[in-house]
Amino acid sequence: MASAYGQERVFAVTGYLSHALYHLLDSAPWIALQAPRRRGPASRLLALSALMTETRYTLRLLGLVPLWTWGSGELKSPHPDRAIHILTLLQVVSNVLYQALENAGFLAAKGIISKKFLDRWGGIDKWYLWSTRAWFGHIFLQFFVLWRLRVLRAARRAAAAAAGAAGGEKKADDAESEAAETRAWTKSLVNNVCWTPLCLHWCAEEGLGFPASLTGVVSFMAGAWGVFDMWKATA
Question: Which first-to-last residue range defines the signal peptide (predicted)?
């Protein structure tokens, strides 16, 4: 919670979880067990989810700043692997488009900027749609980043095996570093796999039929690991 990113992630998980619980409490089996007068908590959970979503939109109004830092950092100190360097720059561009379009749509929806310009290009909903598509661009590229990282890790392992162990202490340090790298790679893959079907659904104007009752659950699955690690790091 000490950083803006950490706050956004906590709000996100809270929103996703409350959305999932709302659909659970609003499901037919649960309703059958409850008296009508006791269905109030479900609507409050949905209101909480909506509040968390709007709060995150507000926090992300400054989202272009860290994206600028990310992009300039990659240009000044490029990744040693050219493929990952290019993929990272493409992800920066994709995220800048995503954030700029979302900010414009959100500010127009709040009446802070004029809707006339957005209306020339399809209106607020269209801007949100293209914002989501730009976000999916990042997710799509991330699969290639993960693939390339896996290739590089395999090559590094092969080189280390050929060279032989250089000492017990160094080998232990290498094993710890390798475990941390593998965990981070797996966490990124899980996050990507969870977001892919949701983004594909949201990228289509009419959707792809992904159940609304499951969006909160899958979104929670995508972010829970990362929030757990951040919480553990501050414990």
Answer: none
